[in-house]
Amino acid sequence: MVGRIIESDACVAEGAEWLCRAEPRFAQVLAQTGPWPLRRKPDGFAELLSAIVSQQVSTASARAIWGRMEAAGLTTEAAVHAADEDALRAVGLSRQKIRYAGALADARLDYRALREMPTDDVIAALVAVPGIGQWTAEIYAMFSLGRADVFAPGDLALQESARVLFGLETRPKPAALRQMAQGWSPWRSVAARALWAYYRVAKDREGIL
């Protein structure tokens, strides 16, 4: 089953109401952060390619590289598939990212079919492509496909936010945070939005690096 899809701010608000009833600390978060953002993104090849471009570089560098790729018309599956290594290097891609971009183009993912697949199957299909890890696949399911009940426990900001909010001695490992998040189903994606919003509050208050 695909499950609930988050399509609007009203969906996020519905999930927030449920979470605040289920876990009072989310009500504390909401009082400090205000409404949690929708953050929906497009789905498809360009969104995953952009995620690959953004890996292990600063936001500014990723934006600059992506701008050059857009200017060169290198953001479609067909264009990347047809491009040679020199063209991809010229816009700023490293050798590894050139390989990943090519692998994504060669994968010929059926993006329309992904919309109808269960979340676990979506993630399995995506991580099978070189250059797409668990975190990227979960974020794609969460924001590009709008899945309401997916979480990204490998995200460091989510781990740190959970540590502060729940008074944990150390930052929870992904397996532990995934287990904790089971209690926030069927609105784990909204819980993630809450923790990301709270991370900014906690960072400003406690000087988290």
Give the topology, please.
Layout (H helix, E strand, L loop, with lengths): L8 H14 L1 H10 L11 H10 L4 H13 L5 H6 L2 H6 L4 H13 L3 H4 L4 H9 L6 H11 L11 H10 L8 H8 L6 H19 L3
Helix pairs in contact: 1-2, 2-13, 3-7, 9-10, 11-13
Fold and architecture overview:
This protein is mostly helical. The chain has two domains: 9-40 and 149-206, Endonuclease Iii, domain 2, CATH 1.10.1670.40; 45-144, Endonuclease III, domain 1 (Orthogonal Bundle), CATH 1.10.340.30. The chain contains 13 helices and no strands. Helix 1 (9-22) crosses helix 2, helix 3 packs antiparallel against helix 7 and helix 9 crosses helix 10. The chain is globular, with a radius of gyration of 18 Å. It starts with 8 loop residues before the first helix and ends with a helix. The model has no long low-confidence stretch (mean pLDDT 95).
Q: What percent of the residues sit in helical stretches (DSSP H or I)?
A: 55-70%
Tell me the span between the first and last alpha carbons: 39 Å
CATH homologous superfamily descriptor of the largest domain = Hypothetical protein, domain 2
Please provide the ordered H/E string of secondary-structure elements. HHHHHHHHHHHHH
Shape: globular
CATH class descriptor of the largest domain: Mainly Alpha
The figure for the number of domains is 2
The second-level CATH architecture of the largest domain is: Orthogonal Bundle
Task: List unreliable stretches of 5+ residues.
Answer: none
- The radius of gyration over CA amounts to 18 Å
Q: Based on DSSP secondary structure assignment, what is the total number of beta strands?
A: 0
Q: What number is the mean pLDDT?
A: 95
How many helix segments?
A: 13
What structural class do the secondary elements suggest? Answer: mainly alpha
Q: Could you tell me the CATH topology label of the largest domain.
A: Endonuclease III, domain 1
